[in-house]
Description:
- By secondary structure, the chain is mainly alpha-helical.
- The protein is built from 17 helices and no strands.
- α3 (42-69) runs parallel beside α6 (115-125), α6 (115-125) packs across α16 and α13 runs antiparallel to α14 (302-317).
- It starts with a helix and ends with a helix.
Amino acid sequence: MFDRERTRMLAVASAALLLSVLVWFNYSAVLPLVVADWGLSGTRAGIVFGAFQAGYLLAIVPAGVLVDRHSPRYVIAAGATVAGLLSLGFALLADGFLAGTLLRFVAGTGMAGVYVPGMRFVTDWYGTADRGTAMGLYVGTFSLGSGLSFLLASSIAAAIGWRVAIGATSVGALLVAPLILGVGRDAPGTDTRTSDGFDLDVLRNRAYLAAVGVYAWHNWELFGVRNWLVAFLVATAAVGGLGTPEAVAGVLAGVMIMLGGVGNALGGTLSDRIGRTTVIAIALVCSGLVSAVIGVLGGLPLPVLLVVVLVWGVALTMDSAPTSTAITEIVNDERVGTALSIQSFIGFTTTVVSPIVFGAALDLGGFALAFPTLAAGALVALGSLAVLRYAEKRRSVERSV
């Protein structure tokens, strides 16, 4: 009965994330149309996306502290509602760079109440033996929702317009509150949490800091790709020469990002079997290699480009669930929410910067110069992973003495 109940709670948390994350990338899915409508430069287009990330960063640590002290369900319900309402506001009210940046910023603060609190919720229900698999499925929903956002928004935008597309992909977040409050329930024993609030002790944990470094630079690459992928595909000969390049690029980007859900699930399950750091290393090497060269491959035939992009989608996310799962195991249980929120705060700081750096590099030298700025993130993440392995080995030796 307990296994059935916790599976149901994993499904509830994943559905809440799926409905909410449609908001995160609906702007990126219609980016070429917004750029044309508002006359945005590459740098300004990146800032509008980065504003969502900045709002997320502002609210993520308070959200993590709250879920160490109280039920994650109420935080998730409130956050999703804010994200949905402000994204609808973007569709209805935004008329240019300043208004769009502000509305995306506030929507991002709402999203902070969904993603990490959901990880805390899943951690409460699953032990370390199968937590990697559960976390892989939950985090995989992020990729699934992101890809679905691209598919829906790009298709609707091509048929009706980008404002309708963003509005249509915003309403799902408003269904999260009745779902998580009406169907979800807290794990047994979590009503006796002992956390007394924010505590920076986790920052003295070297293994934790190294894992956060891995996550931050993984995000540098991942979010740079997701924000600029549609624009890149439209610029390729294979897609740009088609009759409806924006729609085709949106569908391809959506499928690629949805396959990231497979990457998350695969990475989480493999990490339960062969180790967290081994899976992380494999994923970073593969994704980094593609990021380094994809900018000069715009002349590939469509079938070959399709294969490269889809494989890239799996590799880009395989390290995400193992990294977050490792963090839940490195810190004390009563500080998991705080640790995950600090991880997300530091990790998503790079997502504010990398789309802007990419856009600036694009303005200077095109995609051939822009994509290697993302590959650099994978390289630095591998350096952080080496530190994590060393820290874990040192902790193991100290415990055996």
